[in-house]
Prior knowledge:
Layout: H1 3-16, H2 24-41, E1 46-51, E2 54-60, H3 66-82, H4 86-96, H5 100-104, E3 117-122, E4 126-134, H6 138-149
Antiparallel strand pairs: 1-2, 1-4, 3-4
Amino acid sequence: MDIKTDLQRIALQEETLTFERFDKTTAWDLGTRLKSACEEQGVFATIEVRLARDTVFFYSMPGTSASNADWARRKRNVVELMELSSYRVGLSFKLQGDSLEGLMGLPLRDYADHGGSFPVSVKGVGCIGAVTVSGLPQREDHALVVQVFGTDVWGLT
């Protein structure tokens, strides 16, 4: 897949997958829907949903390890800093031939610009949280989050 095409697609996802409102109940529901989606697809992931830097939902499915939780933390840090999906950030740096560490001095120990963390945005407010999945290849982590975000139950704009 072409990086520029993926970047355009991700930018559109970030623009359109915004909530009218989002609270702790919505965060919990999102986390449980991601867990159910993983179970239905027969995949294993660590799932984290944060609201205003507060972890509202966290679950490491059987078949994951502590490294998945660490990857989730590092990817989520990118979203909380840049308010863009971790996959978009990583692809942008790849296209530029640069890195978070090289351009911004961010340590790889705490920041990972790999797919799987997506900003939780509210219309008229902006980014208020992050939802993260870790356990699949990065493009699939990203796609899983977008798939669950894209269901009609959220009233997304």
